[in-house]
From TrEMBL:
Main location: endoplasmic reticulum
Protein name: Protein disulfide-isomerase
Signal sequence residues: 1-25
The enzyme's E.C. designation: 5.3.4.1
Disulfide feature: 62-65, 407-410
Enzyme class: isomerase
Gene3D superfamilies, per the entry: Glutaredoxin
Organism of derivation: Rhynchospora pubera
């Protein structure tokens, strides 16, 4: 269930700064600004006037939208004077009359910003900063050519800054296979990076100016500040950019410029080594030094490193079941989602602790609520530490609900499961439930929604339940798949067979909340 866990983790970590689109409010929108106001009645007409327009889908009550609003307005003011002007617009996505637009542009939360080109024919996600200066710079690069020619040191200074990734191709001539491949890749990746090209390496701010072209120099505000590459096969060049543009140690704090790296860290298939400590600690620099050494040493082993501020990353603590008393804390999550913890770690213990992980001598950590002292209700409670005893090793047929405390459909299911548990209490059947937000779920049980019901038979076969959530439907499912199977009643006539067929309840098609 790695993908499902990742989706939930990213939401809990707060790295996706979105408000839910389903909430309503009566707040009144502020006065008009340099930002053009669009709705379902004028959207197509207005967008059709422009080859390049930026549209924010917002909600008046959304805190993230309120924070963005003044920055977006400042940027709109500056960009209105650009040649040609770059138009910034907004749509109230919480207004039901604009639902056709939020559906069309797949708006899942607020704010969502779209760049719309060619009079509405092309759209792309806005992936830039949320401060006015960053918005202006990002949109200028998106509105113009994918790669900008750098003719002077002043041009280079405006393209390469100390906050973002910039990629510059150095060529003797702006023609040929290498140049064409570079331009093609810059078009593909333009929403993620800033691209430029030049004939003169001497005007670039960092790196050897005597290197013969063609080559690509990637500038970054961390680690060694730049990396060079001289292969121009498109896939190889893209791979270089992907790897070189990632910090050796990702910083998880409140700095918005780190958001893209945090997202990429958690989306990566690599083993994840996460270290959490107070950023006010007098040992912080020592921890950074040791983590950087480890990141360099294990880079070829596909291990990604992150240093997190526990205040900013409280969502991670909740998701992984971590505790403040364990700080400074080191956690490694491997590719099978097993986790290994080092509690109250000192700087000089970091390299030793990672070596133990590599040697396979660490014991995995399991997220679990405490095992209940009493568990005598009809529906049994399962936690991470009791999962094996109740599900795998009980020798019984187990119907297990994976639920979330906030899930309304899960709450509605409670009395249904209790009725089934009471009715089947004298058979070799256990009805149980587990809070999937507070306990580790074994990988063989994939969760894409709550509630999810699985049946683990006494002969150790696993089957997911996808029928209607009624007593009859669930009971029939249990009886059909339990071990040993229930003897089938003998049907003596076609009429009886038809009656039996009609009596089977149909499964409901219920869309659940995650």
């Amino acid at each position: 269930m790695a993908m499902s866990k990742l989706s939930i983790a990213l939401l809990l970590l707060g790295t996706i700064l979105l408000c839910s689109p389903s909430v309503k409010s009566s707040e009144v929108e502020e006065e008009a600004s340099p930002v053009v106001v669009l709705d379902n009645t004028n959207f197509t007409e207005e967008v059709g006037k422009h080859d390049f327009i930026v549209v924010e889908f917002y909600a008046p009550w959304c805190g993230h939208c309120k924070k963005l609003a003044p920055e977006y307005e400042k940027a709109a003011q500056v960009l209105s004077k650009h040649d040609p002007p770059i138009i910034l617009a907004k749509v109230d996505g919480s207004d039901k009359t604009n639902k056709p637009l939020t559906d069309k542009f797949n708006v899942k939360g607020f704010p969502t910003i779209k760049i719309i080109k060619s009079k509405g024919e092309v759209e792309q996600e806005y992936k830039g900063p949320r401060q006015s200066d960053g918005i202006v710079k990002y949109l200028k690069t998106q509105a113009g050519p994918a790669s900008i020619e750098i003719k002077s040191a002043e041009d280079a200074k405006s393209l390469v800054d100390d906050k973002s990734i910039s990629i510059v191709g150095v060529f003797p001539e702006f023609s040929g296979t290498e140049f064409d491949n570079f331009i093609a890749l810059s078009e593909k990746l333009r929403s993620d990076y800033t691209f430029g090209h030049t004939k003169d390496a001497k005007i670039l701010p960092h790196g050897d100016s005597s290197v013969d072209g063609p080559f690509v120099r990637l500038f970054k505000p961390f680690d060694e500040l730049f990396s060079d590459f001289q292969e121009f096969e498109v896939d190889e060049l893209e791979k270089f950019i992907e790897e070189a543009s990632m910090p050796l140690v990702v910083i998880f704090d409140s700095d918005e410029s780190n958001r893209p790296f945090i997202l990429r860290f958690f989306r990566s298939p690599n083993v994840k080594a996460m270290f959490f400590t107070s950023f006010q600690s007098d040992k912080l620099e020592d921890y950074k030094t040791e983590l950087h050494k480890a990141a360099v040493e294990y880079k070829s082993k596909n291990i990604s490193f992150l240093l997190g501020d526990p205040i900013t990353s409280q969502g991670a603590f909740q998701f992984y079941g971590l505790r403040d008393t364990w700080l400074p804390l080191f956690m490694i999550q491997d590719k099978t989602n097993r986790k290994y913890l080092g509690k109250n770690v000192e700087p000089d213990q970091i390299s030793f602790w990672i070596k133990e992980y590599m040697d396979g001598t660490l014991t995995p950590y399991k997220k679990s609520q405490p095992i209940p002292e009493t568990n005598d209700k009809p529906v049994k409670i399962v936690v991470g530490d009791s999962f094996s005893d109740i599900v795998y090793e009980s020798g019984k047929n187990v119907l297990l609900e994976f639920y979330a405390p906030w899930c309304k459909h899960c709450t509605k299911l409670d009395p249904i499961l209790e009725e089934i548990a009471i009715a089947l209490q004298n058979e070799n059947i256990v009805i149980a439930k587990m809070d999937a937000t507070l306990n580790d779920v074994p990988d063989e049980f994939e969760l894409s929604e709550f509630p999810t019901l699985y049946f683990f038979s006494a002969d150790k076969k696993v089957k997911v339940f996808k029928g209607g959530r009624t007593v009859e439907s669930i009971t029939n499912f249990i009886k059909k798949h339990k071990f040993p199977p229930t003897a089938e009643p003998e049907v003596t006539t076609e009429a009886e067979a038809e009656i039996e067929k009609v009596a089977q309840p149909k499964a409901e098609n219920v869309k659940d909340e995650l």
